[in-house]
Design a protein that fits this description.
By secondary structure, the chain is an alpha/beta fold. It has a single domain, classed as Rossmann fold (3-Layer(aba) Sandwich), CATH 3.40.50.1820. Helices cover 36% and strands 23% of the residues. The chain is built from 8 helices and 8 strands; from the N terminus they run E-E-E-E-H-E-H-E-H-H-H-E-H-E-H-H. An 8-stranded mixed beta sheet has the order 1-2-4-3-5-6-7-8, sandwiched between helices. A hairpin with a 5-residue loop joins strand 1 and strand 2. The protein is globular and about 40 Å long. The relative contact order is 0.17.
Length: 233
């Protein structure tokens, strides 16, 4: 794994890890506010050049609490600095939601969205009840996170999903979006199925017999799924 620091337009240094060769794929970790837990070369299949940005205010990146709009601008600063015209945008968990936001705001930069085990664009009480009931049985994966960044991005997410034109924009999006649910995730998959049905070039599938963080528990399955989802784009 190689790494570099890219300076955002406001002067903040953003850490980016990278490895592999082939199709450019930016991989967004979840949280929000978590460190870049996907930055592992053993998770990258052949044929992919993977980029692992660490969110502003987290881990090796500078800055602090910020909005989703700022997160999108940071990704654009990184893409421009790397000299890439377009890339596949893959997000895990909350990173899937950020990938959708990025594709809506910057469609010309996105070859395809791959959203894995995402939350979806909602604040639904029944979804939350099912999630809370299953938390005690979910495999524990220890991931460092920054509460202030979690809070600011969570608040920004709620503002975004309340925007009146959001679903109109999704229904008009020219970007291909592929959503994957983890078969044993405690998060109900229906929000991802709805997104796949709403986006003109949307699709949905489930990965059987794996939990939410299957990048950690089933790395070989993760590699296979990533290869199929990204290299077909």
């Amino acid at each position: 794994m190689d790494e570099q620091t890219i300076t955002a337009r406001d002067g903040v240094g953003l850490h980016v890890g990278f490895c592999g060769a082939g199709r450019d794929v930016v991989m967004l970790s979840g949280g929000p506010g978590c460190v870049q837990y996907l930055e592992r070369d053993d998770l990258v299949p052949p044929g992919i050049r993977a980029w692992f940005p660490e969110p502003r205010g987290v881990g090796r990146s500078g800055g602090g609490a910020h909005t989703m709009a700022q997160a999108v601008e940071d990704l654009e600063d990184i893409r421009a600095a790397l000299g890439l015209e377009r890339w596949v945008v893959l997000g895990h968990s909350w990173g899937s939601d950020l990938a959708v936001r990025y594709a809506l705001d910057r469609p010309a930069a996105v070859t395809r969205v791959v959203g894995i085990a995402g939350h979806g664009l909602h604040k639904d009480r029944t979804w939350s009840e099912i999630y809370e009931q299953g938390k005690s049985s979910a495999p524990a994966v220890d991931i460092a996170w920054v509460p202030a960044v979690w809070q600011s991005l969570s608040d920004s997410f709620v503002e975004w999903i309340h925007e009146p034109a959001l679903f109109r924009r999704l229904a008009d999006s020219p970007v291909e979006m592929f959503f994957l649910a983890a078969g044993e995730d405690i998060r109900p998959p229906w929000p991802l199925q709805q997104l796949a049905a709403l986006v003109p070039s949307g699709s949905f599938a489930a990965v059987p017999d794996v939990p939410h963080d299957f990048w950690s528990t089933h790395p070989q399955t993760w590699r296979r799924v990533i290869a199929q989802a990204c290299l077909d784009a």
